[in-house]
Please model this.
Amino acid sequence: MKIERYEFGKIIVDGKTYNKDLILTADKVYPNWWRKEGHKLQLEDILEILELEQPEVLIVGTGYFGLMKVMDDVKSYLNNKGIKLIEGKTGDIWKVYNKLAEEKAKVVAAFHLTC
Model:
């Protein structure tokens, strides 16, 4: 999967446009990603994907303005599993996903597209 472009509320992945938050892996898009509390990323919001994919790196795009926060339960889980967390505004961080994906790193990326 390769991200071609991001702007507020819209991301283009392999030629397809998405207007809702999503999760990306090396070969799959999980569209319409929903969190229990919109601007708080809690472990229950992403645990199933992490257990399924077992990434080395989790990238979290915290939104255009960076309003989504990664909660401590997520950070503790990642630390205990040896998964590196890279977080930042979605407009800045999507290129990091592309770079790691090109390098064949085992990466999962969760992107908040607005706020």
Residues 90-102 form the longest helix (13 residues). Helices lie at 47-53, 72-81, 90-102.
